[in-house]
Design goal:
There is one protein chain. Helices cover 0% and strands 44% of the residues. By secondary structure, the chain is an all-beta fold. It has 2 domains: 126 residues, Jelly Rolls; 320 residues, Glycosyl hydrolase domain, family 43 (Tachylectin-2, Chain A). Strands 1, 2, 3, 4, 30, 31, 32, 33, 34 and 35 form a 10-stranded mixed β-sheet that branches.
């Protein structure tokens, strides 16, 4: 989406789509970064779970983290499910150590001692969220989208469930909410507080490829005619899921992590349904037009089981967790599936980590480079950046007028050099500060040497 003037305030402005960039100079380039694998946080080895447990969603409710997921198992030799699909929940206080609460709601093989929160057709792809709409009833503080069976329809429809506590659920109504689409995927919805509307993103087959439709609603009951997401000039690819959600450090930006499905490749001989998958990064400023990175955000990697069909599916949602390194700032935890579909195995969820705002950076080599922003308006008193340099590297910031001419007091020579690795660092000049430019249209020129610049804001 074209944008000629940007407001820079307390939200962090990211380089994830390059939309704020006017020019890159010298050796500067936009660099996609990748999450780092950590520990397995959940192994789906209970009798009601299994090797096709999937469609994981992560969210935070107060101090509690939750993972919702489908408990499912498939016998590839006999080509059948070994038990009915169920919806399960696990909880954590740190995003690393997870436990299954004994909720005692539904019986499985004669016992209610389990973490099952729903049984029914909706369990195939139950996708919940915390509703941030201030007008939503407290009894509907949690909502979920899920596919439902419709007599005579191959693909069914989308229905909704609601809950006060995220554990005890009921159908919002018996009639489906959305009927147009192909719903065998992780279909989802959320409250967009910037645009003050609900958005739903769900599966459609378009010209032979798996793609995404979007619909919007003011009340979660009446939904607009779905529109096909616009991928610009990106080539057609199968996007099995979408995992779209507002970024918590800047809800004006929608980030998604679709699982990219490549059906014409096979790597592991015992794969029952040959295909390979990874995940990619997608970005939108308006909810309809998306920039899609063609390089993988998360590659399958060295683990053999991740080269099996429908592995590397990201969980929907990002969590903020403590760094394992003493004294280091919080980081982003990203969760992904491995072990899916393999005979005599169970699905595992592995945690991955990424620095705050660390999806894409402006990177420059030791020889240096620079980035000039589009015209923007600073709405604050301090300019802050999220950056990292080598021991010999540096970052300087010059503020110019809309024509690119340096403003006296804010030239590169007057900027105090920054070096190090900081998530929130103040930019300073020798004799002035950005309060003198508040509300004026300017450009920022970042001069980098052996450095990465991830984000900036004005507070």
């Amino acid at each position: 989406m074209r944008q000629d003037k940007w407001t820079v305030d307390s939200y962090w402005e990211l380089f994830v789509d390059g939309a704020v960039v006017q020019n890159l100079g010298g050796g500067a380039q936009l660099r996609l970064h990748h999450p780092v694998p950590q520990e397995v946080v959940l192994e789906c080895d209970r009798p009601w779970e299994g090797n096709t447990s999937g469609y994981f969603s992560v969210l935070q409710d107060g101090k509690t983290f939750r993972i919702y997921y489908r408990g499912s198992d498939y016998d590839a030799r006999e080509k059948r499910q070994t038990h009915p699909e169920v919806t399960c929940v696990a909880e954590s206080s740190d995003g690393v150590h997870w436990e299954r609460p004994n909720v005692g709601l539904f019986e499985f093989r004669g016992s209610k001692r389990n973490n099952i929160i729903w049984i029914g057709s909706e369990s195939h792809n139950f996708a919940p969220f915390v509703d941030e709409n201030a007008d939503a009833p407290r009894t509907q503080r949690f909502k979920a989208m899920a596919s439902v069976h419709v007599p005579g329809s191959e693909w069914g429809a989308l229905g909704a469930l609601v809950s006060r506590d995220g554990i005890r659920w009921r159908r919002l109504r018996e009639e489906p909410l959305i009927r147009e689409g192909h719903f065998d995927s992780q279909n989802l919805a959320f409250w967009d507080r910037v645009r003050e509307r609900y958005l739903a993103y769900f599966r459609v087959f378009h010209e032979g490829y798996r793609s995404v439709l979007v619909s919007e609603s003011a009340d979660f009951l009446q939904w607009s005619q779905p529109s096909l997401i616009n991928w610009g000039d990106a080539p057609r690819e199968h996007l099995y899921t979408n995992a779209i959600r507002p970024y918590f450090r800047n809800p004006r930006i929608l980030l998604g992590f679709p699982m990219r499905f490549v059906p014409d490749r096979a790597k592991v001989p015992e794969d029952p349904y040959p295909a390979v998958c990874d995940s990619v990064l997608i970005v939108s400023r308006d909810g309809l037009h998306f920039h899609r990175w063609l390089e993988a955000f998360q590659r399958p990697g060295l683990q053999r089981e991740r080269w099996v069909n429908r592995n590397n599916m990201p969980a929907w949602g990002l969590l903020v967790t403590r760094s394992a390194l003493p004294g280091c700032p919080d980081e982003i935890s990203f969760y992904s599936v491995e072990g899916y579909y393999l005979p005599d195995r169970t699905v595992r969820v592995r945690r991955f980590t990424l620095r705050m705002d660390g999806f894409v950076s402006v990177n420059a080599p030791y020889s240096g480079g620079e980035v000039l922003t589009k015209p923007l308006v600073l709405q604050g008193e301090r300019l802050q950046i999220n950056y990292a340099t080598s021991a010999a590297g540096s970052v300087k910031v010059e503020i110019t007028d809309p024509q690119g001419n340096p403003i006296k007091g804010f030239t590169a020579d007057e900027c105090l050099e920054l070096y190090g690795d900081e998530v929130e660092a103040d930019v300073r000049w020798k004799n002035t500060d950005v309060r003198n430019l508040r509300g004026k249209q300017v450009r920022l020129r970042f001069l980098l040497r052996d450095a990465d610049l991830y984000a900036f804001r004005c507070v």
